[in-house]
Amino acid sequence: MDKKYNKFWLALGIILLTLILDQVIKIVVKTNMYYGQHIPVTNWFYIAFIENNGMAFGMQVMPKAVQTLMRLVFSGFILWYIWLLVKARFKTGYIVCISLIFAGAVGNVIDSIFYGAIFSQSTPMDIATFVPAGQGYADWLYGRVVDMFYFPLFEFDWPSWMPFVGGEHFIFFSPVFNLADAAISCGTIAVLLFYSHTFGESFALFKKKD
To answer: What is the DSSP letter of 163?
Structure first.
């Protein structure tokens, strides 16, 4: 088989596997845990169910519906970019990184588009259930992203004599995130560390005709 198609099937496999795992974990958490519930796995790793309205790690920089649509457009661009990389036979490792970023972006977009319309509200007293489409806790495009992985690796109180932070409690690492966030972060970090030159070279693809 042509190596080009090997790269295509590899990218597709990574995307599908990441999306399936991400959605299975989110649905299991959402339909079995109360909002805000923490389940300790170790003393530095918890399954902690929260939701957010924004992008990776809860960031939000624009109205929710606009943000969701912009993420859809961005995901479509990345998918086209992956196809160009495959056709041009770019490095397999780089294609893997971009595929992870794409899968993570789509994983969180799925929550934003569908979850508000197909799930009941998650609260500290009520576990969410599936409901008829359109009868959920929010309209289409207004769903909240499910997060669950919490790694408070260590924590301490800053000495009182420290300026600005004296006496405050510090937790490392405090964000709660999901598998999609992890895929985006791992793909991005790997590109920056190992494929920055390849990333620059890939801009030449946009100057070529298909």
So the answer is: T
